[in-house]
Amino acid sequence: MNARITRTITAGLLALTAAGPSWLARPAAAQTSRNRAAWAARTPWGDPELQGEWTTEGEYGVPLERPSQYGTRQYLTDAEYQNRLDDVRLRDERDLAPVSVLTGRVDGPNAPIPHWREYNTTSRRTSLVVDPLDGRLPARTSQARRLVPQRCGTLQGGEPCDSYEDYGLGVRCIVHGGGFPDAMFPAVYNANFRFVQSPGYIAITYELIHDTRIIPIGSAPPLNSTWSPRMRSYMGTARGWWEGTTLVVESAGFKAATRGASDGLRLIERLTRISRDAIDYKVTFIDPATWTAPWTAALDLKRRPDAAGVFEYACQEGNYGLDHMLSVSRMLDRPQGNK
Fold first, then answer.
1. What's the pTM value of the predicted model, to 2 decimals?
2. 338 located within any domain
3. Among 16, 29, 83, 288, which one is most buried in terms of CB atoms within 10 A?
4. What is the DSSP track for 278-294?
5. Is residue 149, in this structure, part of any structural domain at all?
6. What is the DSSP letter of 202?
7. Dihedral, 56, 58, 63, 69 alpha carbons, nearest 10
8. Number of structural domains found in the chain
9. Residue 210 domain flag
């Protein structure tokens, strides 16, 4: 499906919406010590305006968890920030090392060649996790799912691979990372989004692996602790409401176990427009079966300066790429003398 058709369908869905009644009270997401004033722009129907094209590529290079030497400090000094930029540059140089198709060995870290990438690191955060205050994930519970690292498709010598199921969802062009909210976190490229609003709805298109998420605002029954989805999806089921100038979105019913979470994972997002060119974004993970406490990650969404549009992400074009990877794996299964 090309980008024009996608935009047309999204616009048509939004045109059918109408504002609904106010919602019941919702659980509040964890807060950080970073206070920011909201921007005052409004849509023609009076909602705070989030529309536009945004990117999180500035957060590239920020670790999810905070290195211990920073303690509870959330931001880098000037010297530490320069070191981060130098590390990204050195990583680019190392990643030029060739990969052997026959052995699967790589002489450098896992990454595409530099001209594919869209790295524009601007963030001074010491970690994406902002709550707990030490920037570390809470302890996992005894019944939490075991974290299994992805072996195939990482260029780290994991081939040969037996089945398409051995490859992650991103390699298979199904959804970025483990599904939502991984789609918000910058990877190698295409960390871009389009927000479109109408009365009672907001649609968010994720450029990387082409998903569009349509969120009702105040016009659908709320999710609560007794809600159980009949169907699950990679993006889950979302409900939104306004708290002042902040859009709060609760999501549940996820098909993929992002970061090893259980089927009971709930997410609370908070999006606040803080200037013409920036949105403050926070997402809180609530899953008592996996973590001993909720935790929150934060990102800055910056306006895309070129306004070039959110492009179609064609990925493997009929999954030929996956077919070729499995063909090479079968070749690697053969004895070296029997080509």
1. 0.80
2. no
3. 29
4. EEEEEEEEE-TTTBSS-
5. yes
6. E
7. -140
8. 1
9. yes
